[in-house]
Amino acid sequence: MKLAVDRRGQGFPVLCLHGHPGTGQTMAVFTEPLSQRCFTLAPDLRGYGASRTGQPFAMIDHLADLTELLNAHNIQRCLVLGWSLGGILAMELALRSPQLVSGLILVATAARPRSQYPKTTWQTEVNTAIAAGLNAIHPGWPWAVKTFGLRSHLAYLMQQHTPAAYRRLTREGIPAFLRTSRPASRALRQALGQGYNRLEDLSQIQVPCLLLYGECDRHIIPTASQETAAHLPNCQTIAYPNTAHLFPWEVPQQVQADIVQWILAHPEVILT
Question: Is 49 left (phi over 0), alpha (psi -120 to 50) or beta?
Answer without folding.
Answer: left
